[in-house]
Amino acid sequence: RVVVTNTLNGDTAIAYSNSASVSVQELSAPVFTTQPQSATYAIGTTVTPLSAVATSNAPISYSWSESNDGTTWVQISGATTNSYIPQTTSAGVKYYKLTATATGGSQTKTATSNAATITVYAATAITITARIISFLNFFLLLILTNLIISKVNWF
Predict the structure, then answer these.
(1) What are the backbone dihedrals phi and psi of residue 57, each rounded to the nearest 5 degrees, phi first?
(2) Which of 13, 65, 75, 117 is most buried, most CB within 10 Å of its CB?
């Protein structure tokens, strides 16, 4: 409530404002309600984006990180939304996690998602080996031999 006092020529006037209330709420740390999911892809295939969702009582900013070993993490430049499309240009395993940061006033609180494992494998061509060809030749020879023997008349 505000009190305003004004004195003019020995007369004093006082005015009172209506009451107001202010509540202060502590910033809550982000909580992940969905986690990024692990997946396996062939080199060069279309990838389902990794995504996760965090909630807080303040605005949240996001940043993705990747790792080759699941221990040492590097922030991915420009990956600042709650979804990210990993690259499938080379075979191997990479790990990805999302950091959510809630900021309110001078307070900042963070939370990190579970790590998702993305495995990319090299597509292998199917080749016919000499053994398969030899087997087919042998099978064909059996059929022809059977046809010839069945045409022979025995006396």
Answers:
(1) -90, 15
(2) 65
